[in-house]
Design a protein that fits this description.
The complex is a heterodimer of chains A (479) and B (94). Chain A has 479 residues and is of the alpha+beta class. Chain A has 15 helices and 17 strands. Chain A has three domains: 286 residues, no CATH class; 112 residues, no CATH class; 62 residues, Arc Repressor Mutant, subunit A, CATH 1.10.10. A nine-stranded mixed sheet of chain A has the order 3-7-8-11-1-12-13-14-15. In chain A, strands 6-5-16 form a three-stranded antiparallel sheet, with no helix packed on it. In chain A, strand 12 and strand 13 form a beta hairpin. Chain B is α+β, with helices and mostly antiparallel strands and 94 residues long. Chain B has a domain of 44 residues. Chain B has a two-stranded antiparallel sheet. The two termini of chain B are 36 Å apart. Classes of the chains: A alpha+beta (479), B alpha+beta (94). Chains A and B meet through strand 2, helix 1, strand 10 and strand 17 of A and strand 1 and strand 3 of B. Strand 2 of chain A pairs parallel with strand 1 of chain B.
């Protein structure tokens, strides 16, 4: 069995108003080149001045990733030539990053696992090149520098990830943490999160050759690219061929990876200290102050939902990882209790409604009062859980209260024993074969008979009562 | 014997040198590298690398947006500009 070894390199945009080293706006999708100045297009003599919010967000994210924050860190120039890099170098951190030696604990299929983080550092983004028309004929490429100088945090993991699912879950958790902290939206389609992966496969303890994959546009692409690459590398090795150390490009359309270029040696970037920026010094007090502002994070929330409310891992994660969902969920159960029922309604009925309407959960016209009313109707056995789902669906869409709907549609549960008994007697007549089977000892058919009664009552019969009366009637038949 | 690969340096610096320039620059860089060999004789064990000679404090700015260059200002200094884009010679490859 070949074992994959995976490491991730993630770029998160820190959601400041202005760029990292100048006061230009970071607005997304603005008209090209309307947010540029001498600093971010690299005019001679222009000097970078660091945005204090970038430090605040960087430190906050670093602490949330369980990193050690370096009280002294430094900026470097990473040199390479490309038209969208106006200075000919990117200002980044190299020898001493802002944060190092962290970890995140992920949960996949009931297993907890620690993914170590090597470092997290701040840097500037480059501009964007656009190639229009036929690439072989068009004489020019076009550059938009609005993106140049947008603040990023690069997070590098150790190669602790061993499956595409773990990679997916790590990204999912990281993005959720960034959202809770309010430091990044993590929206991949808006360039607020980018991810490159490094992957090798090996049969034994000797590490295989590492391949880097770029152009991953969604978490699903990360997973698909890794799945493909594991197969590709395994096949090469089994055929006695060698895996080439290279950078590959993921092709969204056919789900394969294609070679791009041989990986440049690290020192080709000729890093050297940025002379325009003295070292970044952060006080221990500042780090402590930022640490105290960190709210409960999604993985802690998820654990609490599982341990205190007995939610399933899937439901706990789905609610805990989305700040607006957990806020809604917690505000409701603080009023109504019954977290398992509420979680179920949110994950099924309310999620369907959101998908259907494209609304956000904040806009759902079904708050704690309505939930309380609905749960009380179930508690007092006026409606069954199944009917309650229909009532909720109806209530969100019509704006009527749950009791109104139950009254208008005559949905109250049938609890009158005589009515139920006559229904049951009918059902027993209609299903003589099943009755014989039951009396012959095949007690499992009781489920079928209960179902038939529920159907006859239009779902309104009280299932507990049906069960009780049905058993009694069957015993009468035996005599 | 040269201690570095002049062609690699050319590639990294984005330069294309003529043959006589290449010879001259190769000699110059060799000489510089030789100076470093002299420096290498100093025993630096246990001494931290010196990155900054002046420990001035980093100046920070508030996260506030200010208007930068207008399109008119850009056009004044840049001929290859149109449709809000800087135009550059076609970039080949990725």
């Amino acid at each position: 069995m070949y074992k994959p070894t995976i490491g991730l390199e993630i770029h998160l945009q820190l959601m400041t108003e202005s760029k990292i080293f100048c006061s230009c706006s970071t607005e997304f999708a603005a008209k090209p080149n309307t947010h540029i100045c001498p600093v971010c297009i690299g005019l001679p003599g222009a000097l970078p001045v660091l945005n204090e919010k970038v430090i605040e967000y960087g430190v906050m994210l670093g602490i949330a990733l369980n990193c050690t924050i370096n009280e002294v860190s430094s900026f470097y120039r990473k040199n390479y030539f490309y038209p969208d890099l106006p200075k000919g170098y990117q200002i980044t951190q190299y020898a001493i990053p802002l944060a190092k030696d962290g970890f995140l604990e992920i949960v996949t299929e009931n297993q907890r696992k620690m993914i170590r983080i090597e470092k997290a550092h701040i840097e500037e983004d480059s501009g964007k090149s656009i190639h229009t028309g036929d690439i072989t004929e068009s004489e020019y490429s076009f550059i938009d520098f609005n993106r140049s100088g947008v603040p990023l945090m690069e997070i590098v993991t150790y190669p602790d990830i061993e499956s595409p699912d773990e990679a997916y879950e790590f990204l999912n958790l990281l993005r959720s943490i960034a959202r809770y902290l309010g430091v990044s939206t993590g929206d991949m389609e808006k360039g607020a999160l980018r991810c490159d992966v490094n992957i090798s496969v090996s049969k034994d303890e000797v590490m295989g050759t590492k391949v880097e994959i770029k152009n991953l546009n969604s978490f699903r692409s990360v997973k698909r690219a890794l799945e493909y690459e594991i197969k590709r590398q395994t096949k090469l090795i089994e055929e006695g061929r060698t895996v080439v150390k290279e950078t590959r490009h993921f092709d969204e359309k056919d789900g394969t990876t294609k070679a791009m270029r041989t990986k440049e040696e690290l020192n080709d970037y000729r890093y050297f200290p940025e002379p325009d920026l003295p070292p970044l010094i952060i006080s221990g007090d500042f780090i402590e102050e930022i640490g105290q502002r960190i709210p409960e994070l999604p993985n802690q929330k998820m654990r609490r939902f599982i341990e205190d409310y007995s939610l399933s891992i899937d439901y706990a994660r789905s609610i805990a990882y989305v700040p607006s969902f957990s806020k809604y969920f917690e505000s409701i159960i603080a009023f109504t209790g019954k977290p398992r029922e509420v979680a179920n309604f949110i994950m099924v009925n309310i999620s369907n409604y959101l998908n259907e309407t494209g609304k956000d959960i904040e806009e759902v016209p079904f708050g704690k009062e309505e939930f309380k009313e609905l749960l009380d109707l179930i508690d007092s056995k006026i409606i069954s859980l199944n009917i309650a789902k229909n009532v909720l669906d109806d209530s969100i869409r019509s704006g009527k209260s749950p009791s109104e709907i139950v009254r208008e549609k005559g949905l109250s549960q049938v609890t009158d024993e005589d009515t139920l008994r006559s229904m049951i007697v009918e059902v027993l007549k209609e299903n003589e074969m099943q009755v014989r089977q039951y009396l012959a000892g095949k007690t499992k058919v009781i489920g079928f008979l209960v179902g038939a009664v529920m159907k006859k009552s239009g779902g309104k019969a009280n299932p507990d009562l049906v069960n009780k009366i049905l058993l009694k009637e069957l015993e009468t038949l035996r005599q | 014997m040269s201690k570095f690969d002049i062609e690699k340096v050319e590639r990294l610096a984005g330069l294309k040198l003529k043959d006589d320039e290449r010879e001259r620059i190769k000699r110059d860089i060799d000489e510089i590298i030789n100076y470093f060999d002299i420096l290498k004789e100093v025993d630096t064990d246990g001494i931290d690398p010196l990155v900054y000679t002046k420990w001035t404090r980093l100046t920070l700015r508030n996260d506030e947006v200010h208007t930068g260059l207008t399109l008119e200002e850009i056009k004044k200094n840049r001929k290859l500009f149109g449709n809000n884009f800087f135009r550059v010679r076609r970039i080949i490859g990725e």
